[in-house]
Amino acid sequence: MAGEFELIERYFTGRGALRDDVAVGVGDDGAVLSVPAGQQLVAVADTIVDRVHFPVGSDPADVGHRALAVNLSDLAAMGAVPAWATVCLTLPTGDEAWCEAFAAGFDALARAHGVALVGGDTTRGPLAISVQLLGLVPAGQALTRRGARPGDLVYVTGWPGDAAAGLALLQGRLAGQGADRSWLVRRFRRPEPRVEFGVRLRGLASACIDVSDGLAVDLGRLAASSGVAALLRADAVPLSRALYALAGEAGAREFALGGGDDYELLFTVPLARRGDLAGLQGPGAPALHCIGEIAAGHGLKVRAGGVDLPVRGYDHFPD
């Protein structure tokens, strides 16, 4: 087992992308970073905890990927470009093999998105990882949850529910084998944050949020922040072939509406600009689906076949 400073030096110094705007990084009391003129700083942070956000015995490389991916998704929802990260690790022991694999998973995703690891902390205790991620957006162009207006259309990227089904497979709450199982489990273990697409939504999306706690719950949060009502058409929510195959139509719909961990983008677009979305499509762009609309008033309705459905999602502190 390595000591704290050995772990930092061996596995976390020099991780992520090399950036010219990092004057001082890992190894000092703080990072010194240069923010370009005309840019605003966007700061996000998330904590993931053993047995809460990932099953016991999870591959540490997957944990490293997820720890960064959930933060990248928050920046994507703001239309920001990621730049710098700090990592605070709480570890039961100084397990070098675990740290090496965790760092490798984190490092690969960080390099793919141009993120430099510039600091953090390690301490002893139950396994938990806190990541703070800093990104940049041109002044005045950040996406928020607050701009949706009556008449806007609601869109979601990708295939909601796949990650929640992948977790259910790992926990034995859902059964399945073969390629469908592999697809869904990977969607949980290795989420793909929509960073590039979030940047493309600047100036087009009126409001945006990432889907972390469930499609319906997160649309309700967006509507509440904007001071409007939202209608989610459950029949229009996309279902992946793998999800449908293993969960059936009813089960798949439940995962898609209430499952968390998708890290897709849920956003609104004015009706008059729906045609502009075609310009955002192309190689590597996620699938887009129109799943509802915004109206005057307040609250969220989830409707299928003219019937209102209950709203379900994840809450760390339910009543």
The percent range for helix content is 25-40%
Based on CA atoms alone, the radius of gyration comes out at 20 Å
Number of strands: 13
Under the CATH scheme, the architecture of the largest domain is Alpha-Beta Complex
At the fourth level of CATH, the homologous superfamily of the largest domain is PurM-like C-terminal domain
Write a structural description.
It is a single chain. Strand 1 (22-24) and strand 2 form a beta hairpin. A 7-stranded mixed β-sheet has the order 8-10-7-11-9-12-13, with helices on both faces. Strands 3-6-4-5 form a 4-stranded mixed β-sheet. Helix content is 32%, strand content 26%. The chain is globular, with a radius of gyration of 20 Å. The chain has helices at residues 4-12, 60-77, 96-112, 162-170, 178-189, 195-200, 215-226, 241-258; strands spanning 22-24, 32-33, 39-49, 81-91, 116-124, 128-138, 153-157, 207-210, 229-233, 265-269, 288-295, 299-304, 307-309. The chain is an alpha+beta fold. It has 2 domains: 4-138, 60s Ribosomal Protein L30, Chain: A, CATH 3.30.1330; 153-309, Phosphoribosyl-aminoimidazole Synthetase, Chain A, domain 2 (Alpha-Beta Complex). The protein has 8 helices and 13 strands.
